[in-house]
Amino acid sequence: MRGQRTERLVRLAAKFMLSPSKLISLTDLANKFNVSKTVISDDVEVINSAMEDEGFGQMQVDRGRSGGARFIPLCTPQYRETILSDIAAKLSDPERYLPGDLIYYSDLIFNPETALTLGYCMASLFTETEPDIVITSEVKGIPIAMFTAYALGVPLAVCRFRNRPSDGAAVGVHYPTANGDVKTMYIGTRQLQHGSRVLIIDDFMRGGSTASGMLMMARQFEAEIAGIGVFIAYDEPKEKSVPSYHSLLTLHHNQEGRNRLTVTRH
User: Fold this and answer.
1) Confidence (pTM)
2) pLDDT tens-digit profile of 161-184?
3) Same domain assignment for residues 216 and 146
4) 56 and 86 assigned to the same domain
């Protein structure tokens, strides 16, 4: 009996974690494992306790008539700071410094394990905003945005800087950059529904022009903005092109010409 429950707990935890933020019927689970719904509810409590102890999520139970539960990626501040401090330490290697006060981080965000962790950290900042869709811009914003969307249980739409025939009909917006240029981004009309609640994700923000462009794009679809999330935000200029945002890391540039990354406090 104990072995049966151990196996069931492992399989249940795996099922919930493979479908984050998706409601799974407790009745269906009870039928699948040939146990009562009360037993499944007890199992969910055990899984919830373990997840909360680890600090990366929790189980949310719907006590309604149908009855269901879902895994919510909800990183505690301590868990998020531990993960992000380790990433900041790696990115602080002077060999990663690039011209223009930039930092090389493509190897990290295109590593699925790191991108998944960053996606969970990002999603936990916006769980309560309940977005319908995540949008980002190509190319480096895609990995973190993809796993953020995965954690939130919603689809991802990508703004491109060149209109592609494979995207079908598209909407384009022109937006200004910090140096006075004007750029254009496009998104397929089938990717974003009118009136959606949109979460904007970007990999790096200095002045915020790219995020501002995505904000303009969302408004073309009369979308409601759930929030703006950024992997790394430069501390200068203080005034960005977007009204508000949340970043995981903040890049500071001191007078000696050195970069310093810190975990952003929320």
Assistant:
1) 0.91
2) 998 888 889 999 999 887 788 999
3) yes
4) no
